[in-house]
Design goal:
It is built from 15 helices and 39 strands. It is α+β, with helices and mostly antiparallel strands and 785 residues long. It has four domains: 92 residues, no CATH class; 180 residues, Alpha-Beta Complex (Gamma Fibrinogen, Chain A, domain 1), CATH 3.90.215; 206 residues, Gamma Fibrinogen, chain A, domain 1 (Gamma Fibrinogen, Chain A, domain 1); 194 residues, Gamma Fibrinogen, Chain A, domain 1 (Alpha-Beta Complex). The strands form eight sheets. Strands 9, 10, 11, 12, 13, 14, 15, 16, 17 and 18 form a ten-stranded antiparallel beta sheet that branches. Strands 19, 20, 21, 22, 23, 24, 25, 26 and 29 form a nine-stranded antiparallel beta sheet that branches. Strands 30, 31, 32, 33, 34, 35, 36 and 39 form an eight-stranded antiparallel beta sheet that branches. The longest helix is centred in the N-terminal third of the chain and has 16 residues. The chain is flat.
């Protein structure tokens, strides 16, 4: 009995002594009998590994004459350590955190993996310690934004390649700024590269070829012209590009801000003074220009195109040659050769999915480009013509006609696959249209020019907000014409027809055969009553060889028949986020439209007439037909009919106003027919209680004799969720409508969602400043700015 009591006492004393004494973090090893070996004591320390690793010192503890039933996990040892050295304690217990300091490079995330670690690398970064970025863009996405020398590891370089990365994820492959490095080099030197990455250099043609052999790349050229030195302004151009084969041919696409790179027609091989690949008979361009380059022409120094590897020669240098303006680093701008003071040539990985994507990346010239809509379609790549001038910029052109040189009387297979040349007249192909429009939201634009009359070209532009080609018959579905013209009908999707596959539904007539081109035909009982067809016979009024030319030909039927000289059909992604984006797109009629909030479609009423248009209406009342005494859920989600009285919904307001700045407009009509307008320059709704944000105050447009509401920072209230500041009242219940209430006394100032009354009283829709008048009609709307 005494032994048991002694054991319990010792245990209590130990528990008091052990356990990482909180102030000093002193830990104790105790001894107790080894149950597996009679007469033997063993050292023990209870607690988890985290407990032991928190110790700052270890000491010998009491001896237990019998094994103790510990409630903690145990650590046993025959060789305890007694020390005040925390480093020794950590070594003894194996406490070192393998993730401290972080062994993962380039912002990789370190995770414990047993007694070791594992790195979770970002994006295109590999390696046990995230030490192998694929390229400079991989570093940029890992938030490594400092320009400098880095080693990258594309698949072609398992041992790595040292490059200069700029702060935006570009690999710099040429840099010149002071003429310190001679660029008049032979083939082998341009092939392998020369210079120092810290100064002027050429990375090497073989490196360019290997880098651009996988994935898609964009070339950027950044120039400072000699006459711009004092302003320190740089000019930048961009093109999709690659370098290929043993002669390091340069292939570029499209135009940058209207300027081609050398020539778009034929890829040019690289030339040096000891390997002449320039195709200019009798002249070695590299020898003349004193630097290797992709030469387009150099019949004389004067007619040479741009060359950024020529002899470094500035206009103000008295030691230059007499023809310094024709030699030297130079660039052709609109036919004028301009001397260049400094240049950087860079490349960056970029996979454009459409023309808009190219434009947003900075490639803004009209032209033929390769896009990669693989994320959305079964087509991994396709060549398209991009219209970068029409706003909003970045349209894919799928039909172009202007001179009749291409025959559009084609069979089903030809219309399916496409025909013609993208640089001339063409049809892109129905299958491409179907796959492109199978995902996302697309708009259609048709641009028409009539025959020249008195040196004027009649022009028509038509747009539809929704455009899709569907199914095996390539059915056309269009919705939302901005102007009321038929293509050919937006009510029923119409199938595509060709002379060898009649899908027009017109009994006894093959419209494509009659009209001479494939189309989505609405009717063609006779040539005279045919609807629009932009793929018909190319026929102009002055063509004496055309039968019934006033009915054949490419034509458009709107208010009148419009004979077409040239036509262009194009599509573009279009997911408007608000009514202002619709207005900027060309929509000028007020009505119900679809917008997209965080990729979710929402129907809204757009006021396109008030104050330059583009207003999203979120409340409308005019006759009391809709009950506004609603609960929290109904005000959150919205109720009513957008064509009548409605509340759009608090959650939609919160999402809509979560980005950008928004102005509020309140339009009021009292029971005497008087009108008022209140404008507020900042309006937003935040949080789960849909609280009005700070910063609301009236603009100069507000009528001066109006008190402005003091409900800023007020939470929304309904009869079943009372968020007002009144202790003994539920304002929403009293006013019979949800609102941002300040107070709910009999003389409440503001409440546009209260019970609808046709006469002035203390209830109903009201706004301060009306005297005894009640509010008969009201609209609340907002617009981004």
């Amino acid at each position: 009995m005494r032994r048991l009591a002694l054991t319990s006492l010792v245990a209590c004393i130990f528990v008091t002594l052990w356990g990482v004494v909180s102030a000093e973090k002193v830990c104790y090893f105790s001894q107790e009998p080894d149950v597996s070996q009679s007469g033997r004591l063993r050292w023990v320390m209870p607690g988890s590994k985290e407990d032991r690793c928190a110790c700052t010192s270890t000491r010998p503890g009491p001896v237990n004459v019998q094994p103790v039933r510990w409630s903690h996990p145990l650590f046993y040892t025959d060789t305890p350590i007694f020390t005040d050295d925390q480093e020794d304690i950590h070594d003894y217990f194996g406490c070192h955190d393998p993730c401290q300091p972080n062994p993962c490079q380039y912002n990789g995330k370190c995770e414990k993996h047993g007694d070791s670690f594992k790195c979770d690398c970002k994006g295109y970064i590999r390696g046990e310690r995230c030490e192998k970025p694929y390229d400079c863009l991989a570093l940029y996405y890992a938030r490594i934004r400092e320009s400098g020398v880095y080693t990258i590891y594309p698949s072609q370089y398992p041992q790595g390649l040292q490059v200069i990365c700029d702060s935006s994820g570009w690999i710099v492959f040429q840099k010149r700024f002071n003429g310190s490095v001679n660029f008049s080099r032979n083939w082998a030197e341009y092939q392998g590269g020369f210079g120092e990455l810290s100064g002027e250099f050429w990375l090497g043609n073989e490196n360019l070829r290997r880098l651009t052999s996988e994935r898609e790349w964009v070339l950027e050229i950044e120039l400072m012209y000699d006459d711009q030195f004092s302003s320190n302004e740089h000019v930048t151009y961009r093109w999709p590009f690659r370098v290929e084969d043993d002669n390091y041919k340069l292939l570029v696409e499209g135009f940058s801000d209207g300027f081609p790179f050398l020539s778009m027609e034929t890829p040019f091989s690289f030339s040096t003074y000891d390997r002449d690949n320039d195709d200019v008979n009798g002249t070695n361009c590299a020898e003349m220009e004193r630097g290797g380059w992709w030469f387009g022409q150099c019949g004389s120094p004067q007619d040479s195109l741009g060359n950024l590897n020529g002899e470094y020669s500035l206009l103000g240098d008295p030691d230059n040659y007499t023809d310094r303006e024709n030699r030297g680093m130079k660039w052709d701008v609109t036919g004028n050769v301009i001397v260049v003071r400094s240049s950087q040539m860079k490349l960056r990985r970029f996979t454009p999915r459409d023309c808009e994507h190219l434009y947003r990346f900075g490639i803004k010239g009209n032209g033929v480009y390769t896009i990669y809509p693989w994320k959305y379609t079964n087509i991994d790549r396709m060549k398209v013509y991009c219209d970068m001038d029409t706003e909003p910029n970045g349209w894919i052109v799928f039909q172009d006609r202007f001179d009749g040189l291409v025959n559009f009387t084609r069979n089903w297979a030809e219309y399916q696959d496409g025909f013609g040349e993208l640089s001339g007249e063409f049809w892109l192909g129905n299958e491409k249209l179907r796959q492109l429009t199978s995902e996302g939201q697309w708009a259609l634009e048709i641009e028409l020019y009539g025959p020249n009359v008195d040196d004027t070209w009649p022009v028509m532009h038509h747009r539809w907000l929704s455009f899709r080609v569907m199914g095996n018959s390539y059915d056309l579905e269009v919705q939302g014409p901005i102007v009321d013209f038929h293509l050919p009908s937006s009510e029923t999707p119409l199938s595509f027809s060709t002379y060898d596959r009649d899908n027009d539904g017109v009994n006894g007539t093959n419209c494509a055969e009659v009209e001479g081109g494939g189309w989505w035909f609405g009717q063609c009982g006779s040539p005279q009553d045919s609807w629009s067809n932009l793929n018909g016979y190319y026929s102009l009024l002055d063509d004496t060889h055309t039968r019934v030319q006033q009915y054949f030909g490419i034509m458009w039927v709107g208010a009148v028949k419009f004979l077409v000289q040239s036509s262009r059909m194009k599509l573009r992604r279009f997911s408007p986020s608000d009514c202002l984006e619709l207005y900027d797109f060309g929509v000028t009629a007020s009505g119900i439209y679809t917008i997209y909030l965080k990729q979710t479609s929402v129907s809204v009423y757009c006021d396109m007439e008030a104050n330059d248009g583009g207003w999203t209406v979120f409340q409308k009342r005019f006759n009391g037909s809709v009950n506004f005494t609603r609960n929290w859920t109904e005000y959150r989600d919205g109720f009513g009919d957008l064509s009548g009285e409605f509340w759009l919904g608090n959650e939609k307001l919160r999402v809509l106003t979560s980005t950008y700045r928004w102005e509020l407009r309140v339009d009021l009509v009292d029971d005497q027919g008087k009108t008022r307008q209140i404008n507020v320059n900042r309006f937003s709704v935040k949080g789960s209680d849909y609280e009005l944000d700070r910063g609301m105050f009236p603009t100069k447009k507000t009528v001066k004799d109006f008190d402005f509401p003091l409900f800023n920072k007020r939470k929304f209230s309904t009869y079943d969720k009372d968020n007002d500041d009144e202790q003994n009242s539920n304002c929403a219940a009293e006013q019979k409508g949800g609102w941002w209430f300040e107070e709910c006394s009999d003389n409440i100032l503001y409440s546009l969602n209260g019970e609808y009354h046709r006469v002035a009283d203390f209830l109903g829709t009201k706004w301060a400043g009306w005297g005894t008048n009640g509010t008969f009609k009201c609209e609340m709307k907002l617009r981004r700015y």
